[in-house]
Design brief:
alpha/beta, seven-stranded mixed beta sheet, six-stranded mixed beta sheet
Length: 271
Amino acid sequence: MKVAAIQMVSAIEREANLARAHALLAEAAAEGAELAVLPEYFCMMGARDTDKLGLRETAGTGTVQNFLADAAREFGLWIVGGTLPLETEDDNHVFNSSLVYSPDGVCVARYDKIHLFYFDNGRERYDERRVIAPGSRPVLFDLPSRDGHRWRVGLSVCYDLRFPELYRALAREGAELMLVPSAFTRTTGAAHWEVLLRARAIENLAWVVAPAQGGTHENGRHTWGQSMVVDPWGTVVAQQPVDEAVVLFDIDAQQVDRARAQLPALSHCVL
């Protein structure tokens, strides 16, 4: 199955971001992708964290959700909408949610980011807890590909990457492919992004597809980029340093089977 990890440098205005996402999804479809994954915050990188509150949507309806459903139908793609803000019961917080749309435009899965980013090195400070409410459960979905294989796909977002127990839970539920839409900072990305992605692939003998924000944003934020596809042996097989791009690769379910047969580490878990 050909997958597309879409790298963006999202701006403040939602409509401009949706226009860029549409063009990149069109490119992915033209290149034969079956699954296209947009990065975290693909629809907006606000001037301030609280801008997310103004763009929150009710689950099942809204500008961004309609865009994703329409694009999935238009291009005949499975689309994972990196993340968008969905309402909570608290007016001061939103969920940072990843939504999955089938080619007929139906939302088949929703994952609310569980782990919320906090970082303070004295020069940069981020605290997602200020406006984001955490999710509470791992989520997987099934994707029947054109070759007849039914992929089991696990969802995660950005900071989740630092918590291997989430990915092991997904692997125990049969995940062969794990998605990590992200907006890693340049500081943390340079130090940890690739090694963490490769580790999650190696530990679980699974494909990892990680689309990212990659560049200098209108709001002044600097994101690391390096969107990549990692195979079940931990090899980076496709990658884009910075700027907008569609990172394409044909992933093979048999490669998961071979790796897990040769090194049955998942069956050796004790704890």
